[in-house]
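G., the chain you wanted modeled:
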Amino acid sequence: MGKPKTKIKTTGEHLREIMAEQRLSTERVAEMLGASTHAVTAWLRPPDNVSYRVMPAPKLRLLQLLLQQSTPTTKQRKKQ
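Predicted structure as tokens:
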């Protein structure tokens, strides 16, 4: 038989996970990325939705980097 298909996550699915983990609002993500709240909302829609828009991968990476800088590492938390 064939290999099991691995579902590839969309950038929007990654964004949704990050937002849930970090407890970020649509407004906060828009502010951090210099995007409109409408754009963020469109990125979060299901791909089969007519209003869906693909989140640019560089925007996702930027969000990850910004959060990495603002989140103390485990070592930093232990020092406090």
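The radius of gyration is 15 Å.

Shout if anything looks off.
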